[in-house]
Recover the amino acids of this structure.
């Protein structure tokens, strides 16, 4: 089945630690995205990538980093510089043409302990 | 910049009631408009979309019409079911030149009671 797989579903981070969230897609999409969702709020864009080996900052990139070494994979690292990382993180991909829908993964819930 | 404003919830309805969720947008170009739905603990799923003015998107009994003159994309369903309980997000995309990034509204939680 084609889709987007995020792992892990739940992740706990200690203060000062870096953690990496995985996102893999087998839809052959060029573009991939990371969004952050806080309780009762909409989604905010962290980073996006339109092609392998290239990515751009979104609206809230501070404290996060990404890589895009393969078309299928777009991991997100939450660094210790992110002061309030507890949130629900969603990865998405799309095929590119105007009006193309974005397909979302099931999300990773990150909690700082 | 772009922005999407949708009515705050929660919206509580009885089964078979009529549902409307208002959505208005601000964009510099000619965006595509979307409604996504999120069930508890899950990612988002596309509900419907429209890519140009006066287009109507429809799916699973839900409808929304792209109104350029009022910059709106209101979601409607004539008779809701308990299974429609979810959070609904209105979103816009300015297309490939802008990276197909989605700008989301704050979401509207809908609760349908039997």
């Amino acid at each position: 089945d084609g889709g987007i797989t995020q792992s892990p579903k739940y992740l706990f981070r200690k203060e000062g630690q870096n953690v990496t969230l995985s996102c893999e897609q087998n839809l052959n999409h060029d573009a991939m995205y990371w969004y952050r969702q806080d309780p009762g709020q909409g989604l905010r864009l962290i980073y996006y990538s339109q092609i392998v080996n290239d990515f751009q900052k979104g609206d809230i990139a501070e404290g996060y980093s990404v890589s895009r070494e393969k078309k299928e994979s777009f991991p997100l690292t939450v660094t210790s510089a992110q002061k309030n990382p507890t949130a629900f993180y969603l990865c998405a991909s799309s095929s590119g043409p105007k009006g193309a829908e974005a397909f979302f993964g099931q999300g990773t819930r990150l909690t700082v302990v | 910049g772009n922005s999407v404003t949708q009515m705050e919830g929660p919206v509580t309805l009885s089964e078979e009631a009529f549902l409307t969720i208002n959505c208005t947008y601000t964009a510099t170009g000619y965006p595509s408009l979307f409604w996504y739905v999120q069930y508890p603990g899950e990612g988002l799923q596309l509900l419907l979309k429209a890519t140009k003015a006066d287009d109507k998107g429809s799916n699973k009994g839900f409808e929304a019409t792209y109104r350029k003159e009022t910059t709106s994309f209101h979601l409607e369903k004539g008779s809701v079911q308990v299974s429609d309980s979810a959070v609904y997000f209105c979103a816009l995309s300015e297309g490939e030149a802008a990276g197909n990034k989605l700008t989301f509204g704050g979401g509207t939680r809908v609760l349908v009671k039997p």
In short: The interface with chain A takes residues 4, 32, 34, 36, 41-46, 49, 51, 89, 93, 95-96, 99-102, 104-107 of chain B (CB under 8 Å). The first strand of chain B starts at residue 3 and ends at 6.
